[in-house]
Design brief:
Layout (H helix, E strand, L loop, with lengths): L8 E3 L2 E3 L30 H11 L2 E4 L5 H12 L14 E6 L2 H14 L4 E4 L2 H5 L3 H10 L2 E5 H9 L8 E7 L9 H10 L6 E6 L9 H14 L3 E4 L14 E6 L9 H18 L13 H17 L1 H21 L3 H22 L14 H11 L9 H9 L14 H11 L15 E4 L3 H17 L8 E4 L12 H18 L5 E4 L14 E4 L6 H8 L8 E6 L4 H20 L7 H4 L7 H4 L3 E2 L8 E2 L4 H11 L11 E6 L5 E6 L10 E2 L6 H18 L14 H8 L41 E13 L20 E6 L9 E5 L2 E14 L3 H18 L19 E7 L6 E3 L1 H9 L28 E4 L10 E7 L16 H9 L10 E6 L24 H9 L5 E3 L4 E3 L4 H8 L1 H25 L12
Parallel strand pairs: 3-8, 3-9, 4-6, 4-7, 5-6, 7-8, 10-15, 11-13, 11-14, 12-13, 14-15
Antiparallel strand pairs: 1-2, 16-17, 18-19, 19-20, 21-22, 21-24, 22-25, 23-24, 25-26, 27-28, 27-31, 28-29, 29-30
Helix pairs in contact: 1-2, 2-3, 6-7, 9-10, 9-12, 10-11, 10-12, 10-16, 11-12, 22-23, 25-26
Cofactor: Mg(2+)
Protein name: ribonuclease III
GO molecular function: ATP binding; helicase activity; metal ion binding; ribonuclease III activity; RNA binding
Length: 1090
Amino acid sequence: MKSPALQPLSMAGLQLMTPASSPMGPFFGLPWQQEAIHDNIYTPRKYQVELLEAALDHNTIVCLNTGSGKTFIAVLLTKELSYQIRGDFSRNGKRTVFLVNSANQVAQQVSAVRTHSDLKVGEYSNLEVNASWTKERWNQEFTKHQVLIMTCYVALNVLKNGYLSLSDINLLVFDECHLAILDHPYREIMKLCENCPSCPRILGLTASILNGKCDPEELEEKIQKLEKILKSNAETATDLVVLDRYTSQPCEIVVDCGPFTDRSGLYERLLMELEEALNFINDCNISVHSKERDSTLISKQILSDCRAVLVVLGPWCADKVAGMMVRELQKYIKHEQEELHRKFLLFTDTFLRKIHALCEEHFSPASLDLKFVTPKVIKLLEILRKYKPYERQQFESVEWYNNRNQDNYVSWSDSEDDDEDEEIEEKEKPETNFPSPFTNILCGIIFVERRYTAVVLNRLIKEAGKQDPELAYISSNFITGHGIGKNQPRNKQMEAEFRKQEEVLRKFRAHETNLLIATSIVEEGVDIPKCNLVVRFDLPTEYRSYVQSKGRARAPISNYIMLADTDKIKSFEEDLKTYKAIEKILRNKCSKSVDTGETDIDPVMDDDDVFPPYVLRPDDGGPRVTINTAIGHINRYCARLPSDPFTHLAPKCRTRELPDGTFYSTLYLPINSPLRASIVGPPMSCVRLAERVVALICCEKLHKIGELDDHLMPVGKETVKYEEELDLHDEEETSVPGRPGSTKRRQCYPKAIPECLRDSYPRPDQPCYLYVIGMVLTTPLPDELNFRRRKLYPPEDTTRCFGILTAKPIPQIPHFPVYTRSGEVTISIELKKSGFMLSLQMLELITRLHQYIFSHILRLEKPALEFKPTDADSAYCVLPLNVVNDSSTLDIDFKFMEDIEKSEARIGIPSTKYTKETPFVFKLEDYQDAVIIPRYRNFDQPHRFYVADVYTDLTPLSKFPSPEYETFAEYYKTKYNLDLTNLNQPLLDVDHTSSRLNLLTPRHLNQKGKALPLSSAEKRKAKWESLQNKQILVPELCAIHPIPASLWRKAVCLPSILYRLHCLLTAEELRAQTASDAGVGVRSLPADFS
């Protein structure tokens, strides 16, 4: 018994290829397998890139759709050639000239060039003004500007008078270049070029070779004429022929839907009523002043929309649309102030209710009655039935997936014919690994003309799905150009509409809906997936509309179906012939057009003799790359490189002919492949072989550097999937590496170390440089973010700070912020003194203190890190500075460093003992700026606290905050067996010293700069004022750390400061290098630069 899924749909004597009936198997070319990987040609690149390459190579006429595409290519070309125009005009620097037809287009082009480049642009649109300028005045303009945008009249004047010679122009851009066919200044400018020995590169831009209907022969003649006048080749971008000219063309079918037989007479009756109503409104004799609104406008619009729906879709839909319009009218009536307008709206409202009443006599509005729809609708439903997916047991497991956001989703697995089901099951066993949980094989668009048709047709299809199990699989939605327009004034309602449309598109892209009913807005510009069914419900009326909608059917197996009424079919077939002829002409003009004859040639049979394959393991079934499979491997590898949704990574292959008639190819991989160098292949007898051999050599190189695994699959995020498909898990447990750059597969790269910090560790008796790390609190933390109501500590209040000691000067870098608990602190690095020397003994002390700061204060020394300052890539000392010896300037604080070395609390916990005879004595000044360490816990890594406050009203005998203990003294006795010698000492309120190292972003923002959620201020205030949430310590049981709190707070900023310093110095180095290599900017900054 034949599987029902494989019966091709026969319609009007034509075969309709559905994915299910494809000889390649049912899952070949599913729409969600977005990119088909080509095997015989390199993956095509985006058409803008292709056109740009063509324009860089030779004079070019770009035929592109209207819109920004053309200007964009002109700007790209200007930028690519901008190295020729950045020079001084008086010293042979050239200039780029943009020519436009009229003055009002000048500003448009100027803003495009300014937006997309840093070039200086001059605009000249007024012939009267510009004509009076002298040669000197023009020379000033040419010196000042690199790109000159002028109307053709101004340009002709400038060139004829010899103010600017053609040899001074590097690129001449003609906007609307088709005008050159006529007697136009463009033509005269081109005549001047004929006699010029060094003619500039020419780029012509045109959209209107294709406006409305045009005759193919005329078109061809037009293009040839233009090419001759502009001495250029015409290149159409792929957006005027079906977009991806490499993929298979959709199968095109024109369906004759037959006449509508109106058995009940309802259709005729409704049509007559609507005609009468429209005639009545048109006959109303109302005097309309030009400034007033037309009272009948809304009524006419609504009634003609209703009539259109009746004619195209039939009475059932006309009834539905009348209901919708009544609801919309209510809003208008409610807000209408003017009497006459209101009367017309009420007339329309009554009339629509009449339509609804007439329909109710013939059918119940609740269910769909196919006797009351047009033959077009019937044909459409017939086509959609053919796309019904198979029913398989497996669907049950993915059913929850489809139901997850679709309340009215109908299950597909309720088949009546169980025996038939089993029959299919038997045959389909090997095909169990489904490519995706979205098992809807359909991905289709229906194009309609009017907004209401889209809305109602969507309603009808949903209704049909409820009644017909064959159509239950469809999840449809509609999109109308309402609100997508880019330059419309945006109001709240429009915003909401726009969001709604965006959401519809998102669902369609994600294959959550499988059918989209759209007005022509989706023909161009909107990004949607490759569809395997495109239906034109209304026939295309011009070439552009035909090609744009056909271009949406881009899945490997797809159908483009045009539904025609019997009376229109003859004339449309003529149109279609014209469209095909135009497409053929344009296709030949298509940039890098592939000669289809060549790609279909059978693979080279004994390829091993032509060029030996790359074999991984010598056994028979081992993985190998031959010249026939190599290009596929390269394309697959490029498609797997990490990229964002807007980047289209593809290999670039250039083939050149050698004098002896052989060819060699050079292959360039995308920029983010680790294989950076271009690969040059050996000379071969033909272009095709040259391209294949270079791909084979590239595969070998990629495998050797570990970019292709031992199954010749790209290593990366997709490998897991491939391994499952190849079922490799039986032979061995393969360790699948993670996605490059993720935590599972970190990619190592050499860290850039600024040259001024390399080998700059100070040496004894050699000149040194001392820099101060200046810190100033510029934006104190606002009260609402200061949750603990802590005091703020501006770093500039204390003189002791940190400095950097190096053997080389550090270039000037800008100030930058770090964000501490007190707010935003601005950091500066300033030279304090240079050319002084230090003895070995001093340097050893400085080095020990440097290590102490990072190992003990910041605790950054991890097991894998060793302190070897002389071997490190970047080496300099961080050391404390202070105002020393009564002078008012900062200098190295050697005494402080020596004191630290002597201190017992430097690393561990001092063993001071207090007794009844020598009790603890409290001195307030010792605790004013102190870091303290509890002496009775965490001996291996003691906790360090800032003293936030001294509570003089509390003593160890005060009440303990929680009920288990009476007093603080009892708590310490019970928990730690500690006796206090001084029961009158005050208690200390303390704060943890920070372990947070990244202070480059404010703590109340997340990484992306969004504010973190905050609980209410009252709750927080209560929380921090209750003693239970505070750490209260007894001074006697704590040791005082030799580093004061004010310096400790500055030390916490060091990792962020040094990290930012490295980055800014690397950037400064790059800037200086660019200045010297490219001549952009100044090599070294002036001394007074700030």
